[in-house]
């Protein structure tokens, strides 16, 4: 009795639900209706043209330049200098110099003279702490200190440590006679911008045709006059030329300069005067 009642109930439920067919006699199969999707209108992105590379007249100053004022900055600008690289030997002096330069409308970098007898990481971090809060474009690692008995492989490891400590800050390498004397023409770091010293008092890169070293092709900056003054004031400065706003490919090629690393390694190398940032 219970079984027959249950079957009757199930039969009724199937009948009311269609029991294999719909109430209008159509098939029970599901019909999928695909809704036509209209593609979104393309988003127009304005193409941003990066600034063109500019070869600037630049200066570099240090703790030995002392505190500077607005008149110094204006004098430099009036003489055509628009970029300054600030040494980080003394935090208070470097910050004062950066403040005055930025307030006066000049672009700035910093440099760190590295000693191979101290932690490279700590030295770089201390320099970056000085730059914090200022629109510094690049940190230049100044490599010219006497490395003592360290060989080229040990020097490469230490230099790499300094580079790694820079993190995301753009990096450049300042060097000259040191690289030829101690690095034996090593091209390991040629991917980084080079600022080299050659005191020929000529603000061009023409000398690179015979002075090329280290696989750099071509250099980004040149220090062509040291321990001098500019802009009608007595502040001790060095004079430079420097490419700014460089694309990923680096500076424009120089006519007559070897472009392959192998060619550069074979280029005639002439000893540059030693440069002592600590003076």
Structure description:
- The protein is of the alpha/beta class and 279 residues long.
- 28% of the residues lie in helices and 19% in strands.
- The protein has helices at 2-16, 70-78, 91-103, 120-131, 152-165, 177-182, 208-211, 261-266; strands at residues 54-61, 81-87, 107-113, 136-142, 171-175, 194-197, 221-228, 237-244.
- An eight-stranded mixed barrel has the order 1-2-3-4-5-6-7-8.
In brief:
The protein contains eight helices and eight strands. The N and C termini lie far apart (114 Å).
Layout of SSEs?
Elements: H1 2-16, E1 54-61, H2 70-78, E2 81-87, H3 91-103, E3 107-113, H4 120-131, E4 136-142, H5 152-165, E5 171-175, H6 177-182, E6 194-197, H7 208-211, E7 221-228, E8 237-244, H8 261-266
Parallel strand pairs: 1-2, 2-3, 3-4, 4-5, 5-6, 6-7
Antiparallel strand pairs: 1-8, 7-8
Helix pairs in contact: 4-5
């Amino acid at each position: 009795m219970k079984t027959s009642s249950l079957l009757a109930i199930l039969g009724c439920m199937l009948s009311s639900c269609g029991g294999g067919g719909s109430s209008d006699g159509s098939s029970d199969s599901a019909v999928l209706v695909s809704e036509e999707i209209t593609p979104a209108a393309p988003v127009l992105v304005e193409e941003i043209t990066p600034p063109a590379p500019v070869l600037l007249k630049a200066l570099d100053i240090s703790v030995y330049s002392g505190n500077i004022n607005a008149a110094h900055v204006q004098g430099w600008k009036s003489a055509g200098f628009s970029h300054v690289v600030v040494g980080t030997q003394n935090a208070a002096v470097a910050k004062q110099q950066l403040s005055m330069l930025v307030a006066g409308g000049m672009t700035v970098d910093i440099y760190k003279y590295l000693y191979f007898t101290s932690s490279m990481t700590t030295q770089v971090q201390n320099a970056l702490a000085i730059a914090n809060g200022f629109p510094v474009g690049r940190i230049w690692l100044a490599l010219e200190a006497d490395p003592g008995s360290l060989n080229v492989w040990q020097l490469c490891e230490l230099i790499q440590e300094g580079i790694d400590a820079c993190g995301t800050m753009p990096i450049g390498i300042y060097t000259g006679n040191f690289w030829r004397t101690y690095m034996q023409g090593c091209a390991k770091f040629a991917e980084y911008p080079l600022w080299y010293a050659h005191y020929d008092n000529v603000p061009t890169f023409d000398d690179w045709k015979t002075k090329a070293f280290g696989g750099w092709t071509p250099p980004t900056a040149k220090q062509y006059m040291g321990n001098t003054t500019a802009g009608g004031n007595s502040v001790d400065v060095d004079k430079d030329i420097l490419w700014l706003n460089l694309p990923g490919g680096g500076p424009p090629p120089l006519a007559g300069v070897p472009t392959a690393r192998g060619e550069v390694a074979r280029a005639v190398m002439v000893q540059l005067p030693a440069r002592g940032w600590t003076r």
